[in-house]
Specification:
six-stranded mixed β-sheet, alpha/beta, 20 helices, binds pyridoxal-5'-phosphate, 462 residues
C-alpha cells in the first residue's frame, strides 16, 4: 500500500459560496463563434446544445473578458468553489438565472483539488478527487448542469454522443446519469480501455448506453463527428456532443488554474505542465491566461502521439493515426482542440510558441519517472501525470528559477495494471471504483463504420 501525501490546501472546501468575500466582476454577455465561420455569433445556450457548430467548427468565445488583477489577487483567500463562482459569474452571468448558475457551480465543484508538493518547485495538482477519479469530472458535471438546464427548455429529448478513450465516457455518463431530458451514448474502442474505466460507463443503465466499437479511439471520434454532419440523423434526433469540442467542458477546467496559481504565493514565475491528448485541458489554461491569470508559460506534454509538440518544434500540424501507449487517455492522433489553440494565437506559430513549449515522452521514460518519484518522494503518479512531470523537469533544466505545477489528471488506481507492474506494488482501489467493479458490464458491439452507428441510432432511439 502506498501512503498518500499531505496537501497544502485542504482548507474550507465544502463550505458553500460566501458571497461577501467575492467581488463578482460583471461584464457583458460573452458570445460564441465557430472556428470555421468567424462572423456568426451564437449564445451560450446554442453553443452548448449544439456542441459542434453546424459548419463542423468548434465554438470559441468571441471575447474573453479579463478579470481585474485585484480580483485575481483576492483568490488566495477563497476556496476552489468560491473561485469557480467568481470566474463563472464573470463569464456567464447573463446566460441563466443566478440561482441556477450557482447551483451548477456548487454541484460541479463538490470535491477538492489538492496542490501537493513533490520536490522543490515541483507540485502536483491532483484533479482526480471527483466521482470518476479523473479531471474530466469537472467538465462533465458542469456540462451536465448547463445542458440539463437548456434541455429542459426544449421539446425533444437531447441525445448526447460521446467518443471516449476511457475517462471522458465515465465522467460524462456519471455526470448525466438520470438528468431529465437527456440520453447518453458512449462510443469506446474495444479492448483499448482499462477494466476499471469500462465499468464506469457500461454498468449504469438508465439513460446511459455504451457502444463497444471494433476500432480505435480515432474511429469513435470520427463516427461521432460524422453523425453530427448527417442531415437525416439530425432531423430525427436532437444530437449533441459531450467531448471537449463542447465549450461548456472547457470553462470549468479554467477554475483550477486560478485556484492552483492562487496557492503558489507567487515568489517565482509559475508554469503549468499539462499532459495532453485532445488538448482541452491545455486550452482551458490558455483561456485562464486570457482572463488575466499571470501564468508564465505552459508545457504541452504528450506520449509518442506528438503532433502538437512537433508543430511547436517548428514543424507542420500533421494529424496521423494514434498509437497505443500506457497513458491511453492521451492516445490521440488528431487533437480536436488544436483548432481552438490556433484561434487563440491567430494562427501564428511564433505567438503560440511564446506561451507554450511542447514535449513528448516514451512509455519507458514514463515508467522510469513513476519509479523515480515513488522512490524519492513516495508519491504515486499515474502514467498521464508522469508525462506532465517529465515535461516540467525537462523545462526546469533550462529554466531553473521557475516553479512548476503538473496536472495529475487521474487517480493511479484507474491504471492499476500499469502502475502495479511499474512500481512492483499494489495501488489500493478507492471505494468509489470498487463499487463500479462489482457491477455487471452491459455494452453493444458495433463496427467502426459511421453506418454502423447510424443504423444503431435509427433503431434504438425514437
Ligand atoms: C483525457 C485525459 C487526458 C488528456 O486531456 P485532454 O484535455 O484531452 O488533452 C490526460 N489524462 C487523463 C487521465 C485523461 O483522462
Amino acid at each position: 500500500m502506498y501512503s498518500s501525501r499531505k496537501s497544502i490546501n485542504r482548507a474550507h472546501l465544502f463550505c458553500t459560496i460566501q458571497e461577501t468575500k467575492i467581488t463578482v466582476h460583471k461584464t457583458s454577455n460573452v458570445k460564441f463563434y465557430s472556428t470555421n465561420s468567424l462572423r456568426q455569433f451564437v449564445t451560450l445556450h446554442e453553443a452548448v446544445l449544439r456542441g459542434l457548430a453546424p459548419d463542423n467548427g468548434l465554438y470559441m468565445p468571441a471575447s474573453i473578458p479579463a478579470l481585474p488583477p485585484t480580483v485575481i489577487a483576492s483568490f488566495s483567500n477563497l476556496s476552489l468553489q468560491e473561485i469557480s463562482w467568481a470566474v463563472t459569474s464573470h463569464l456567464l452571468h447573463e446566460d441563466l438565472p443566478e440561482v441556477e448558475l450557482r447551483k451548477i457551480v456548487e454541484h460541479t465543484i463538490g470535491f477538492d483539488a489538492p496542490l501537493v508538493p513533490i520536490e522543490e518547485h515541483v507540485f502536483a495538482l491532483e484533479l482526480f478527487h471527483g466521482p470518476t477519479l479523473a479531471f474530466k469530472d469537472f467538465g462533465a458535471r458542469f456540462l451536465a448542469g448547463l445542458l440539463g438546464y437548456f434541455a429542459a427548455r426544449e421539446d425533444r429529448q437531447v441525445t448526447i454522443l460521446v467518443a471516449t478513450s476511457g475517462d471522458t465516457g465515465s465522467a460524462v455518463a456519471n455526470g448525466f446519469l438520470n438528468v431529465p431530458g437527456t440520453r447518453v451514448v458512449v462510443l469506446y474502442p474495444k479492448d483499448k480501455v482499462s477494466e476499471i474505466q469500462e465499468k464506469q460507463f457500461t454498468t449504469l443503465g438508465a439513460n446511459i448506453t455504451a457502444l463497444e466499437v471494433a476500432g480505435t479511439f480515432d474511429d469513435c471520434q470520427r463516427m461521432v463527428k460524422a453523425a453530427f454532419l448527417d442531415q437525416e440523423l439530425r432531423q430525427k434526433l436532437f444530437l449533441t456532443s459531450a467531448n471537449s469540442i463542447n465549450i461548456a467542458r472547457l470553462i470549468p477546467q479554467s477554475f483550477y488554474y486560478f485556484y492552483a496559481w492562487s496557492r503558489m504565493r507567487a515568489e517565482k514565475p509559475v508554469v503549468f505542465s499539462v499532459p495532453s491528448g485532445n488538448f482541452g485541458n491545455l486550452t482551458a489554461g490558455l483561456l485562464a491566461k486570457r482572463m488575466g491569470l499571470p501564468v508564465h508559460h505552459f508545457l504541452a506534454c504528450t506520449n509518442i502521439n506528438d503532433v502538437v509538440p512537433k508543430y511547436l518544434a517548428g514543424g507542420l500540424f500533421e494529424p496521423r493515426p494514434s498509437q497505443a501507449t500506457i497513458s491511453n487517455a492521451m492516445d490521440v492522433g488528431n487533437p480536436s482542440n488544436f483548432a481552438r489553440m490556433l484561434e487563440l494565437y491567430k494562427h501564428s506559430p511564433a505567438a503560440m510558441k511564446r506561451d507554450i513549449s511542447g514535449f513528448h515522452f516514451s512509455d519507458d521514460e514514463t515508467r522510469a519517472a513513476m519509479q523515480k518519484v515513488f522512490q524519492s518522494a513516495k508519491y504515486v503518479m499515474d502514467p498521464h501525470g508522469a508525462v506532465g512531470y517529465l515535461g516540467l523537469k525537462r523545462y526546469q533544466q533550462d529554466h531553473p528559477n521557475i516553479a512548476g505545477i503538473f496536472l495529475e489528471t487521474a487517480h493511479p488506481a484507474k491504471f492499476k495494471k500499469t502502475v502495479d507492474a511499474t512500481l512492483s506494488g499494489e495501488v489500493a482501489i478507492p471505494p468509489p471504483l470498487l463499487k463500479f467493479l462489482s457491477r455487471a458490464k452491459r455494452s453493444i458491439c458495433i463496427g467502426n463504420d459511421f453506418e454502423d452507428l447510424k443504423d444503431w441510432l435509427n433503431k434504438a432511439i425514437d
